[in-house]
Amino acid sequence: MDGRELIRFDRVTKRFGDNVVLDDLEFRVDSGKHVTLIGPSGSGKTTILRLLMTLLKPDEGTITVGGEYLTHEEKNGKLVPAGEKHIREVRKNIGMVFQQFNLFPNMKVLRNITEAPVNVLGLSKEEADTRARDLLELVGLTEHMDKYPSQLSGGQQQRVAIARALAMRPQVLLLDEVTSALDPELVAGVLDVLRDIAHTTDITMLCVTHEMSFARDISDDVLMFNEGKVIESGSPDKMFNDPDHPRTREFLGAVL
Ligand SMILES: Nc1ncnc2c1ncn2[C@@H]1O[C@H](COP(=O)(O)OP(=O)(O)OP(=O)(O)O)[C@@H](O)[C@H]1O
């Protein structure tokens, strides 16, 4: 599966009013790769993840995931705006973990994880339960499956959110600053789980983070964003030790 293009942004422009957030943006992510997006606040990193989740639409350009257009579909050889059904199908391939864990507060941990596999993928309750139990083991929360989210720490809630995203077996996992709402002592536990997933599964990851040592550990590629464009990309070794672009050097000098 490695080496095949999974995500493609083709000349994508996104504006909010006069603010051009993404400017004719081109980039690709191959299947199985772990890519980290870095760059100053406001450079458009979260906007990219939100476009992939179809929470936003580009003003210009196209985005494909697994060769399928996200916001368009082909009908009679023509590209037309995608219908709800098409968007739902493409979205099944994409999991996202947000800064705020966004768990269902009225459901116990196990049910938080089984809900979408049952309702969206049509798994039986037993199949979804087995899948959820395996994932709870992976994130180290087996003994908490009968609790409500409010009975867990923020770090534990975030690990449930990771398990919930993985339960859909997405091709790509989007991670948006997943530790930035956590107390410092809870960050390591969440990053350890994500390192484990990055190193033991073939899931594609697209990650926005300020945790540079984590980015170094898991990334195949690091993309530096500035003013809506990728101004430099490369291996973590290259990007963190010897970046070419002055703006990258300046940014990393400020955050490392
Ligand atoms: N819904 C929105 N309406 C208007 N402007 C928005 C909206 N969402 C984002 N923006 C603007 O788009 C720009 C890029 O935001 P984005 O959140 O993608 O940046 P970012 O690189 O993720 O920043 P950070 O590191 O601070 O999270 C910012 O100027 C932001 O104010």
Adjacency order of strands in the biggest sheet: 8-9-10-3-11-12
Q: Helix and strand string, N-terminal first?
A: EEEHEEEEHEHHHEHEHEEHH
Flag low-confidence runs: none
Number of helices: 9
Furnish the topology, listing elements before pairings:
Blueprint: E1 5-16, E2 19-30, E3 34-38, H1 45-52, E4 60-65, E5 68-69, E6 72-75, E7 78-81, H2 84-91, E8 94-97, H3 109-119, H4 125-138, H5 154-166, E9 172-176, H6 184-200, E10 204-208, H7 212-218, E11 221-226, E12 229-234, H8 236-241, H9 246-255
Helix pairs in contact: 3-4, 3-5, 4-5, 5-6
The protein binds adenosine-5'-triphosphate.
In short:
The chain has about 260 residues and is of the alpha/beta class. Helix content is about 35%, strand content about 30%.
For the structure shown, list the relevant keywords:
single chain; 256 residues; alpha/beta; four-stranded antiparallel sheet; binds adenosine-5'-triphosphate; ABC_transporter-like_CS; nucleotide-binding; cell membrane; ATP-binding; Ectoine/hydroxyectoine ABC transporter ATP-binding protein EhuA
